[in-house]
Design goal:
There is one protein chain. By secondary structure, the chain is mostly beta strands. It is built from two helices and 29 strands.
Length: 377
């Protein structure tokens, strides 16, 4: 079965992609966020999770200047805004508007092949999006975009591989767009499909997650957390996976030693998506400037894995630990697991709490911290 799937042509994968969007939408529509079993979520002492908002197929998150939380979607056509306890649509009729980013009062939205912009989005409800760039590839496979503005003011956009594993020029990279000149340049190569990145709050250097290829078994390869302190680096795809695993086909032409290995190997097929450095003041000091990762969860592993938020602690640009932070979206015994939610993206809210999107449950959660009372002696 797995050999047959691995040999599928790209046209067949396009059909599988469309079917996955339909099934994801059906899962979201069937979910009842007001009845979600949040008591099953396990967190470190002092932390709690609550439902912040109900948003169908909630995907990428971006925070506005006035505290509005903007939410993209992949299987739907709308972008939502969460503000003052209410949810509203800021745009509709779009094509896979997964990515959202905010800068200087404007909301930027990434469809598969273009970038849109809504000016003064927090003060002008109903404003229509305008196209600011329309030269991105149109491939649906890994075509949904995660976007963010870097410290340099440029809009960073990944272009995922249009396949499980292939060698195609102009794909498998993270690039950046200069909105003034409309010039698009490549920052990092060898990136199969990144759906989450952030910049270290001190060094201002780029870090990103990357999803490993499929059909090398349950345990291989690992997803990755990578560090790109400068432009021009290559992270291995499609020649090398997880820093030390040559690809059965493309690994014959280049060696793993030629590429930059990941800072941290994540779980195999956990589908590591959104990541954020924690910069808030609410959580204990040990979490400051550390990496939270939303692990969306495996789709083709015999024993499901992921469906959680993990924490990678960093010291001097090296990972010193990788551990679960919030888990419980996956229930059941091995081989019979049943996920009721799938974390997608993370955002630090103004009060220092952590917002988490969940496209399967159609929910935005808020994770907060209150120091537990001292134990009486």
């Amino acid at each position: 079965m797995r050999r047959w799937l691995a040999a599928l042509p790209n046209a067949a994968w396009q059909w599988i992609f469309a079917a996955s969007l339909f099934l994801g939408a059906a899962f979201s529509a069937a979910a009842q966020p007001s009845q979600l079993p949040l008591e099953r979520i396990r967190l470190p002492p002092g932390f709690r999770i609550e439902l912040l908002a109900t948003v169908p197929n909630a995907r990428s998150l971006a925070l506005g200047d006035k505290g509005t939380l903007f939410v993209g979607t992949r299987s739907g056509s709308a972008v939502h805004a969460v503000a003052g306890g209410k949810v509203s649509k800021v745009a509709d009729g779009l094509s896979v508007p997964n990515g959202v980013a905010f800068r200087d009062g404007a909301l930027y939205i990434a469809e598969v092949s273009r970038i849109l912009k809504i000016e003064n989005v927090e003060s002008s409800p109903g404003a229509k999006p305008e196209v600011v760039y329309d030269k991105l590839p149109r491939d649906a496979h890994h075509g949904w975009k995660f976007i963010r503005f870097g410290p340099d003011g440029r809009l960073y956009i990944p272009i995922g591989a249009p396949c499980n594993v292939c060698d195609r020029e102009g794909y498998g990279l993270i690039g950046f767009l200069d909105l003034k000149t409309k010039a698009f340049e490549v920052h990092s190569k060898g990136v199969r499909n990144s759906v989450g990145f952030d910049w270290h709050p001190v060094t201002r250097e780029l870090w990103f997650t990357d999803n490993g290829r499929d059909w090398l078994g349950d345990e291989l390869p690992a997803d990755e957390l990578n560090h790109a302190p400068r432009a021009g680096m290559h992270f291995g795809f499609p020649y090398c996976h997880q820093g030390d695993l040559p690809d059965p086909e493309f690994g014959r032409t280049r060696k793993c030693a030629e590429f930059t290995p990941p800072v941290q190997k994540l779980g195999p097929h956990v589908a590591a998506l959104g990541m954020r450095f924690y910069t808030g003041a609410m959580f204990p000091a040990e979490y400051r400037n550390q990496v939270f990762i939303a692990e969306h969860g495996s789709w083709n592993r015999s024993k499901k894995i992921g469906y959680r938020i993990s924490l990678v602690k960093i010291e001097h640009n090296k990972a010193v630990s990788y551990q679960p932070f919030a888990q419980g979206w996956l229930q059941g015994d091995a081989g019979n697991e049943n996920p009721w939610g799938r974390p997608v993206d993370l955002e630090i809210l103004p009060d220092g709490s952590l917002a988490v999107s969940d496209d399967a449950a159609g929910a935005i959660y808020r994770i907060s911290y209150s120091a537990p009372p001292p134990v009486p002696r």
